[in-house]
């Protein structure tokens, strides 16, 4: 259980090491002086390191401090990925179809971010030749190496042989990462839209310029024709 820090008059030590509201080191001063500074600044004196010699306290807004700590704790809980250990059991004498089915389960668990404990169950005389179980586990590890790696090598455990696989290359995105990626995607979309808009404007400007040149050329040609016609009439 997390205990609340001592604040203001709850701090009983005669002196403490004070940290200012911006993180600056004030130094070792009497607790009564620190309390006066807190009142003058309309802040709280909060003991942040009670076991230090002398204890360390900081001038902060305790209400805002508690709110920020609550937000941090909530984010920490959200960012935790609770991986489970799943178990898949094989018989030593397993046909190819069943092997593929169980391999699919292993792959799905690894993709989900869970570890997988693979157990080979030995019966009767199989217990005298555990090497067959080791070879089966090695085959499985090789065929799922894209999704997981061997965390615990095959070993005999009583009548069974076990191996543990851990997810490989599987990153569980936290909400902050998802928000960051979403912001990056939005920025990329906006950049592409801006580029398309600029290209469209440039194309329109080029078309307008070309149209203007054609119009000027037509006007010049018409003017030239009129001049030639007039000169012919005068002649």
From TrEMBL:
InterPro entries: T_IF-3_C_sf, T_IF-3_N_sf, Translation_initiation_fac_3, Translation_initiation_fac_3_C, Translation_initiation_fac_3_N. The gene is infC. Its main location: cytoplasm. Signal peptide: none annotated. Residues 167-235 are annotated as: Disordered. This is Translation initiation factor IF-3. NCBIfam families: infC (TIGR00168). Residues 215-235 have a biased composition (Polar residues). GO terms for cellular component: cytosol; membrane.
